[in-house]
Amino acid sequence: MIIGVLNGPNLNLLGTREPTIYGTATLADIMTHLEGVANALGVQLRSAQSNSEGTLIDTLHAWRGEVDGVVVNAGAYTHTSLALRDAFSATAIPFVEVHLSNIHAREPERRHSMLASASIGMVCGLGADGYEYALRGLIRALQSLPSRQLPPVRG
Ligand code: DQA
């Protein structure tokens, strides 16, 4: 099994970016930890980060047929990007959304995810650990459910 880990805008600044909200782990720290978890589970990872919406979409297109699922933190595009949700629908890649902060306990404009309705599920508010939980949950869902039982990838 191959899982893609996709990170959106400003997540390259983790570690120094508003640490009281996002913690002090860098994206490299998070990916190193995830690689260890994936190795232990016999899963391969692909990873990408971009500050550009188009590049995130291009990455999903490139991963079509290569990855079995994606863990995504789309950053602020979570709240705005119908195009990114369309890319998940178009590629039919199952995904789990992750957010370091609890987006439902923040400003009103962060409480809605454009991606959530097409996702298997979401982990939020558990900091960097949430990436591991999202990865484990995605793998479990992919392993235990026949594909027809996964939520339809829809808008
Ligand atoms: C975030 C939450 C978003 O609202 C924000 O724009 C981010 C990070 C999180 O991981 O908590 O960039 O996705």
Structure, explained:
With 155 residues, the protein is of the alpha/beta class. Helices cover 36% and strands 17% of the residues. It has five helices and five strands, in the order E-H-H-E-H-E-H-E-E-H. The protein has a five-stranded parallel beta sheet, sandwiched between helices. Strand 3, helix 4 and strand 4 form a beta-alpha-beta unit. The longest helix has 16 residues. 1,3,4-trihydroxy-5-OXO-cyclohexanecarboxylic acid binds next to loops. The site of 1,3,4-trihydroxy-5-OXO-cyclohexanecarboxylic acid has 10 residues, from loops.
Short descriptors:
17% strand, alpha/beta, binds 1,3,4-trihydroxy-5-OXO-cyclohexanecarboxylic acid, 155 residues, 5-stranded parallel β-sheet
Strand order of the largest sheet: 2-1-3-4-5
Strand content: 15-25%
Radius of gyration: 14 Å
Q: Determine the number of helices (DSSP H or I, runs of at least 4 residues).
A: 5
Q: Spell the H/E element sequence.
A: EHHEHEHEEH
Q: What's this model, at a glance?
A:
Helix content is 36%, strand content 17%. It has 155 residues and is of the alpha/beta class.
Please write out the topology.
Elements: E1 2-7, H1 19-22, H2 27-41, E2 44-49, H3 53-63, E3 69-73, H4 82-91, E4 95-99, E5 121-124, H5 129-144
Parallel strand pairs: 1-2, 1-3, 3-4, 4-5
Bound molecules: 1,3,4-trihydroxy-5-OXO-cyclohexanecarboxylic acid.
